[in-house]
């Protein structure tokens, strides 16, 4: 099957773009941050991305409930894969700009231009300018014939006349049926940093502690981060993996004979945030309904937001007129 691309459809009032070949079907929502909401492996008919269980809404409908933008990300979160700028985590502030949870880029509409319509390759370009930060964003998502992989190349340009700090997160969330107790995770890293603000009752790891990958020896016993406890154990942890020898991870499920490998530049993304809401996210908006993991390359820590990353020295800086570029490749394959 040759590659095809179409931008003729909508989802929840948002423009949708579909890229497809004989191995993958990919859905994008340019009107909501350019989110990637489906990467369907045709061999197994599984969407490897997490699909949020709550009634998420398009950003144009406004924040649900009280007029507080801090949790707008969750009000409008469909699951899937977001590119998060200018601040990961939060809420926080930077240079006089209040930043909601996970910044601004995942909520703004992007302009769409089809760059390549097949049959050997399809590609779409998404562009936007942020409001609270002087960032122009360009994103190219492509799919080639005969390949079970999508490639996302992004460029961020500082259009201001002063240098600015930022943190950049690839918010990749993988879900059922790929994520399951029979699945396992491989990451070429050495260090585990438990998020210092982790205080929920369903956390297995003590906040602010440091461990060696992959087994965290706690007072309550070992926790193997390569494994995924069943949902009835109600686990919810957030850690950052560091000291990566390669920018890569693989999550593999032998019962489905399906695996996912993500590759990213570790020179830019020095940390891999590892979000583990395995039936234990008991607060809004999930209330224990989600079983998924986030495996999220990021430039900085912690989850507290950009101002905390500036304070601890892990935030990056972009000079006036400077551009930073990132390419992330996600592929599906038989279980390894």
Instruction: Tell me the Rg in angstroms.
Output: 19 Å
Count helical runs.
Answer: 2
**Average pLDDT level:** 95
CATH hierarchy class name: Mainly Beta
Question: What is the CATH architecture assignment?
Answer: Distorted Sandwich
**Residues in β-strands, percent:** over 45%
Main sheet: strands, sense, barrel: 8 strands, antiparallel
Q: Give the count of structural domains.
A: 1
Low-pLDDT segments, ≥5 res: none
**Spatial strand order of the main sheet:** 9-10-11-12-26-22-21-15
What is the terminal separation in angstroms? 26 Å
How helix-rich are the residues, as a percent range? under 10%
The string of secondary-structure elements, in order, is EEEEEHEEEEEEEEEEEEEEEEEEEHEE
- Structural class estimated from helices and strands: mainly beta
Count the strands?
Answer: 26
What is the CATH topology descriptor? Beta-galactosidase, Chain A, domain 5
InterPro entries: DUF4432, Gal_mutarotase_sf_dom, GH-type_carb-bd
Organism: Haloarcula limicola
GO biological process, one term: carbohydrate metabolic process
Protein name: Aldose 1-epimerase
What attributes characterize this protein structure?
about 325 residues; mainly beta; Beta-galactosidase, Chain A, domain 5; seven-stranded antiparallel beta sheet; 2 helices; about 5% helix; about 45% strand; globular; GH-type_carb-bd
Task: Give the topology, please.
Blueprint: E1 4-11, E2 14-20, E3 24-29, E4 35-41, E5 46-47, H1 72-75, E6 81-84, E7 92-94, E8 97-99, E9 111-117, E10 121-129, E11 135-144, E12 149-158, E13 164-166, E14 169-175, E15 184-186, E16 191-194, E17 210-212, E18 215-218, E19 221-224, E20 235-242, E21 248-253, E22 258-263, E23 271-278, E24 292-298, H2 306-312, E25 316-318, E26 323-333
Antiparallel strand pairs: 1-2, 2-3, 3-4, 4-5, 6-14, 7-8, 9-10, 10-11, 11-12, 12-26, 13-25, 14-24, 15-21, 16-17, 16-20, 18-19, 20-23, 21-22, 22-26, 23-24
Pfam family, one: DUF4432
GO molecular function, one term: catalytic activity
Protein name: Aldose 1-epimerase
């Amino acid at each position: 099957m040759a590659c095809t691309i179409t931008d003729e459809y909508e989802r929840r009032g948002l423009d949708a773009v579909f890229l497809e070949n004989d191995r993958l079907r990919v859905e994008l929502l340019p009107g909501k941050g350019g989110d990637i909401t489906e990467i369907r492996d045709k061999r197994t008919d599984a969407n490897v991305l997490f699909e949020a269980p709550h009634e998420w809404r398009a950003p144009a409908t406004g924040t649900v409930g009280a007029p507080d933008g801090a949790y707008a990300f969750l009000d409008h979160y469909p699951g899937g894969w977001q590119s998060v700028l200018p601040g990961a985590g939060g809420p926080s502030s930077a240079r006089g700009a209040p930043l909601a949870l996970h910044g601004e880029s995942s909520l703004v509409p992007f302009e769409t231009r089809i760059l390549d319509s097949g049959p050997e390759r399809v590609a779409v370009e998404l562009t936007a300018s942020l409001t609270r930060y002087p960032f122009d964003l360009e994103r190219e998502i492509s799919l080639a014939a005969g390949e079970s992989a999508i490639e996302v190349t992004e460029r961020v340009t500082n259009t201001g006349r002063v240098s600015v700090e930022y943190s950049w997160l690839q918010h990749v969330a993988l879900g059922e049926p790929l994520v399951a107790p029979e699945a396992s995770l491989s990451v070429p890293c050495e260090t585990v940093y438990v998020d210092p603000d982790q205080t929920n009752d369903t956390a297995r790891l003590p906040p602010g502690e440091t461990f060696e990958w992959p087994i965290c020896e706690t007072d309550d016993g070992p926790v193997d981060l390569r494994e995924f406890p069943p949902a009835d154990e109600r686990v919810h942890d957030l850690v950052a993996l560091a000291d990566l020898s390669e920018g890569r991870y693989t999550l593999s499920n032998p019962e489905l004979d399906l695996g996912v490998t993500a590759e990213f530049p570790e020179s830019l993304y020095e940390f891999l945030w590892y979000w583990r809401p395995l039936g234990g996210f008991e607060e809004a908006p999930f209330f224990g309904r989600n079983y998924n993991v986030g495996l999220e390359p990021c430039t900085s820590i912690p989850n507290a937001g950009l101002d905390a990353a500036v304070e601890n020295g892990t935030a990056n800086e972009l000079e006036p007129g400077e551009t930073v570029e990132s390419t992330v490749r996600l592929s599906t394959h038989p279980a390894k």
